[in-house]
């Protein structure tokens, strides 16, 4: 069972164990969330799990999921860097690996009934093994209110939720954090300051800018300020720098896959810095048509991730295209980070496009280019004139020549 250490996850473990008579293997995945994973494992055992497998997926999560998405420059709308959506297929993949290892044909998750995460988990489970049996306790157990859930926990001496748990729902990992606001859901009111858990308010950040340089090889970040770094250390460093400077703070009205909406606060300090640097480097290494086509496809890529279709054929095909564009995306990008804003200062690459240094073609080349396009336009206009009923595009609606 996917286990994250929440109050609801405790109830799911206990319910599966004592109401359904299952042996429960809790799987807790370390994706860089802000909590001690040893404590999460102990909590799973206290809730009734027969064992708890704690997996450190931070490097794999960054390499196979987050960086693949960054190559596509994919965001869900503007400013939502899909930290929660990307984590679900990573967790589900690990659960299916353990299920194969242990010889079990049944998996479970603790997501809310009719929630986006239920879709993401169950679509991923079935993509990886169409024959697996999937259990969703929240869709079966019959609790009609949170008060009934708390009463169940008291009856069986389970951990009770903290007061903040009922105020909002937080999901965080190394790539970012999302907070679904409860009582303050009215978009007419400002989100409470404490809903931002990772980043400082830009208005109280340092009055001096922070400057960094990020080096890329084939579209992947490999250096920070000249020092080669592993993905986890690099992203963690950028998260710290971004958080101190108020980077990556967004408010968002989230859409449920079942039709509802929720008010959310998203934070992604390191991801925002990396995306800005990656886009800047692509601007001088990729031709305009490739960049334009990437923008068209990145929206679809983000939709697939958000909708739980990471392991779909289309997502894999899109990733293959994005990967093919990255061979030349090598070089260094200098950034200035200041009070919530990331600004590109300089960008250098050995694969810089010819002409991106500002030099223009010679006059004769320009004349030839214009003459070719004039001929194309003349021929098109001649064909339109000889077509029966063709409208003239040479006059505007007032009758004057354009």
How would you sum up this structure in a few lines?
This protein is α+β, with helices and mostly antiparallel strands. It has 12 helices and 13 strands.
Main sheet overview: 5 strands, antiparallel
CATH fold-level label of the largest domain = Rossmann fold
Q: What structural class do helix, strand and pairing data support?
A: alpha+beta
Assign the CATH architecture of the largest domain: 3-Layer(aba) Sandwich
Helix content: 40-55%
Strand content: 15-25%
What would the average pLDDT be, to the nearest integer? 90
Order of helix and strand elements from N to C terminus: HEHEHHEHEHHEEEEEHEEHHHEEH
Q: Class of the largest domain in CATH?
A: Alpha Beta
Uncertain residue segments: 393-402
Silhouette:
globular
The main sheet orders its strands as 9-8-7-12-13
Taking all Cα atoms into account, the compactness measure Rg is: 26 Å
N- to C-terminal distance: 68 Å
Number of strands: 13
Count of helical segments? 12
Domain count: the total is 3
CATH superfamily of the largest domain: HUPs
Fold and architecture overview:
The protein is α+β, with helices and mostly antiparallel strands. It has helices at residues 7-18, 37-47, 58-71, 83-102, 116-128, 146-155, 163-167, 231-244, 269-285, 288-306, 313-324, 363-385, and strands at residues 25-30, 51-56, 106-108, 133-135, 168-173, 176-181, 210-217, 220-224, 227-228, 249-255, 261-267, 331-338, 341-348. The chain has three domains: 7-161, Rossmann fold, CATH 3.40.50; 170-286 and 325-348, Argininosuccinate synthetase, chain A, domain 2 (Alpha-Beta Complex); 361-392. Helices cover 42% and strands 19% of the residues. The protein has a five-stranded antiparallel beta sheet with strand order 9-8-7-12-13, with helices on one face. Strands 5-6-11-10 form a four-stranded antiparallel beta sheet. A two-stranded parallel ribbon has the order 1-2. Strand 8 (220-224) and strand 9 form a beta hairpin. Helix 3 (58-71) crosses helix 4 (83-102). The longest helix is centred in the last third of the chain and has 23 residues, at 363-385. The protein starts with 6 loop residues before the first helix and ends in a 17-residue tail after the last helix. Mean pLDDT is 90; it is low at 393-402.
